[in-house]
Specification:
The protein is globular and about 60 Å long. The chain folds into two domains: about 25-115, RNA polymerase sigma factor, region 2, helix turn helix motif (Rna Polymerase Sigma Factor, Chain: A, Orthogonal Bundle); about 115-199, Orthogonal Bundle (Arc Repressor Mutant, subunit A). It has eight helices and no strands. Helices cover about 70% and strands about 0% of the residues. The chain has helices at about 15-25, 25-45, 55-70, 80-105, 120-140, 145-155, 160-165, 170-199. Residues about 1-25 and about 100-115 have low confidence and may be disordered.
Length: about 200
């Protein structure tokens, strides 16, 4: 019988060869991360009110931040981490665009003027006008409520998914959605009244 001084075998976790290779190549981890999350980030940027013409640029800014910080990320709530980065990048991009607009009088919606080859000119114009009206209405809403509203009503995310990415309790999501719906329909009605008065 062995006494207390007997050697105790220490089991080390088995590491798969592909994990070792991935750890040695952080750019491979980033590439997979980028490919997996790009679509989500683009939808969040839209929900946060990023202009359609700027979405790809903002997404690239998000992933530049991710590339710098991925090594320090603990892996918990990836969606929430990315959402917060996207939120800050949309805010910063808006500020930079506003300053650029003030000093150069340039407009960032230049791609909205490009022709859509799939439909008639009248249908294309009507579609663009509706999109502009929707963007204008959404831009007047509170940022957190607008994001929850777009993610739920347009993107089809569940309340639990929104709570996870916004890093808030589920009841906060439902409260934001409740208030956002009222706010949205009030703004729609205000827009309709203003349109009737113009005609």
């Amino acid at each position: 019988m062995r006494g207390p001084s007997a050697a105790v075998a220490v089991r080390r976790p088995v590491v798969a060869p592909e994990d070792v290779a991935a750890a040695a190549r952080p750019e491979a981890d980033f590439r997979g991360f980028y490919e997996r999350w790009l679509g989500h980030v683009l939808r969040w940027i839209q929900a946060l009110g990023g202009a359609e013409a700027d979405r790809q640029d903002i997404a690239q800014e998000v992933f530049l931040v991710v590339r710098r910080r991925l090594h320090a990320f603990d892996g918990g709530n990836t969606a929430g981490w990315l959402y917060q980065i996207a939120r800050r990048q949309v805010r910063d991009f808006r500020r930079r665009a506003w300053i650029k607009h003030v000093f150069t009088r340039e407009h960032s919606d230049a791609t909205d003027a490009l022709p859509d080859r799939g439909s008639s000119p009248a249908a294309t114009l009507e579609h663009k006008q509706r999109r502009q009206i929707l963007r204008a209405i959404l831009s007047k809403m509170n940022e957190d409520r607008r994001a929850a509203f777009v993610l739920f009503e347009i993107e089809g995310l569940s309340g639990d998914e929104i709570a996870r990415i916004q890093n808030v309790p589920i009841n906060t999501v439902w409260q934001r959605l409740h208030v956002a719906r009222k706010e949205f329909f009030k703004l729609v009605e205000k827009h309709r009244r203003a349109s009737r008065e113009e005609t």
